[in-house]
Design brief:
Two copies of one chain form a homodimer. Chain A is an alpha/beta fold. Chain A folds into two domains: 110 residues, NAD(P)-binding Rossmann-like Domain (Rossmann fold, 3-Layer(aba) Sandwich); 163 residues, NAD(P)-binding Rossmann-like Domain (Rossmann fold, 3-Layer(aba) Sandwich), CATH 3.40.50. Chain A is 28% helix and 17% strand. Chain A is built from nine helices and 13 strands. In chain A, the strands form two sheets. In chain A, strands 8-7-6-9-10-11-12 form a seven-stranded parallel beta sheet, with helices on both faces. In chain A, strands 2-1-3-4-5-13 form a six-stranded mixed beta sheet. In chain A, strand 6, helix 6 and strand 7 form a beta-alpha-beta unit. In chain A, helix 1 runs parallel beside helix 9 and helix 3 packs across helix 6. The first copy, chain A, is elongated. Chains A, B: It holds the Pfam family 2-Hacid_dh_C. Chains A, B: One of its GO terms (molecular function) is NAD binding. Chains A, B: This is D-isomer specific 2-hydroxyacid dehydrogenase family protein.
Chain lengths: 306, 306
């Protein structure tokens, strides 16, 4: 093939941001049958079952690709990229927003219509606190400088325990139990795996200080939600701010919605409506790398520990 | 006097944090009649009218001292300190909490019980935005590094226009009108003066972009509240997050409480319940300076432009 452009299929549907990014980086839009690259802007359900062998790289729009893994779609016959790192700034910002809204009682203040007595005595500052971040990937790397600028210290927990920049200390996942009594708040930013399922259970909730807030911007399954509701109602922790739930979405009568010390946002840390605009420059950069024969950003493989 | 301790009156009432601070820095608690220093932990109403001449320094607990100024209490016969700089970290944190809670739709998300469609399409990221801070004192100095860590840029406005560290640019107050169309959001951190009264009026609200949020952690009088309500209802701006109101407190039926895009917290940016704990190390430091003959922190004078 002597063409100077790279044939890229963009599916499903059209998207102005991704189209512009692909064309700006030397790609030309073609049908899947003629493609060397597939930029897949959809989910797992309508992913093409007959992916041509000529497709050398599949760029997924998703950050969490458990379903692609579970369906066995991620193969080793081509390169796969996901987008987890590309959305990290936005997710980190939402985590910070929740970690401030909870201890600083923002929703409670709005609901209580100037109940100064109650809000004034329950508000807590993030400044001077210790925040545990469970799962120290891209979200943590974006979140840590924000927390440090707010005067908080961070204990990072990752698989290896390898030092995370900006954290006061880093612990390996098998020592996570040491973290609970030593932190003021917890941010969950770990992938959903068999090991992280119900990471936050009754015993963890009992070990946390009673002023602790738990922020979840990862996956709902990381928390035993029934145990969480019991612990919040019993005052074992101060509250929880959840951008993800289990099940998701919650039913309209889910008791989460009726507990004033649980803040629920509808999985918008990385808003779907702005997704392709955020993703576009990264797709362009990876396409540039692909054409230059360089290593791609955010690759995943069948062995990835998601 | 040969005593090695400095006689300090602490009034009104007792306070464990301030007592410990005073004693740790070489002070000894005495009655006002015997005091060289008065640490005044109250407001203006019960301030002693017969302040002995022997009192060389009055340390006020308050950040905003308009009422002391108006009452003519701040004289030039002794040194006066207020506490505005000492609470700046806490107030800056609250400003950031409000600036995230608004654009990221936290209270709206809680109220709407997982209305993903609406929240997802109205949420905005602070990352990449430009925030105007009006009044570039201690609160701004604490807020700017937080905003920069969040990927926002700052236009600072102060009286002189003298460059504020960390701000992309600084404008003098007489050029503030240039800021409105060029910023995404506004944080009010200016003192309450005749010039700042109704700084935010109908014309400013019309000049701001329609996605703008206004955060007020200063004084309610800086905003023409009737104009604000009209502008928010008309969609001229996205919303307002107010820790201070005019009048304050608002009446129980104040329309502020019924406008979903106005967030009201009950003047808790610097919670009264934690005040003396926050203040104590600063009182200790100033007492150390006083005893050493050094310049005190956070002095105010009858000429201060508060």
């Amino acid at each position: 093939m002597t063409s100077e452009t790279t044939p890229v299929a963009l599916a499903p549907g059209h998207d102005e941001h991704l189209t512009a990014a692909i064309e700006s980086a030397g790609g030309v839009l073609v049908s899947l049958a003629d493609a060397q690259v597939l930029v897949w802007a959809g989910g797992v359900d309508d992913f093409p079952t007959d992916l041509p062998d000529a497709v050398e790289w599949v760029a997924l729009k998703l950050a969490g690709i458990e379903e692609f893994m579970a369906a066995g779609l991620i193969d080793d016959r081509r390169t796969w990229t996901n987008a987890s790192g590309f959305y990290a700034e936005n997710v980190a910002e939402h985590a910070l927003a929740l970690l401030l809204a909870g201890p600083r009682q923002i929703p409670a203040a709005v609901t209580s219509r100037w109940d100064k007595q109650v809000i004034d005595t329950t508000i807590r500052s993030l400044h001077g606190s210790t925040v545990a971040i469970i799962g120290a990937g891209g979200i943590a790397r974006s979140l840590i400088p924000r927390l440090v600028a707010c005067g908080a210290e961070v204990i990072a927990v990752n698989r290896s325990g390898r030092r995370v920049d900006g954290a006061r200390e880093t612990l390996p996942a098998d020592r996570v139990a040491e973290v609970w009594p030593r932190c003021d708040h917890v941010v969950l930013a770990a992938p959903s795996t068999a090991e992280t399922r119900h990471l936050i259970d009754a015993s963890v909730l009992a070990a946390l200080p009673d002023h602790a807030w738990i922020v979840n911007v990862a996956r709902g399954t990381l928390i035993d939600q029934a145990a969480l509701l019991r612990a919040v109602r019993a005052g074992e922790i101060a509250g929880a701010a959840l951008d993800v739930t289990d099940p998701e979405p919650p039913g309209p009568d889910d008791p989460l919605f009726d507990e004033p010390r649980i803040i629920v946002t509808p999985h918008v840390a990385n808003p779907a409506s702005g997704l392709t605009r955020t993703l576009a420059p990264w797709v362009a950069e990876n396409l540039r790398r692909f054409r230059a024969g360089e290593e791609l950003l955010s690759t995943v493989s069948p062995d990835s520990t998601y």
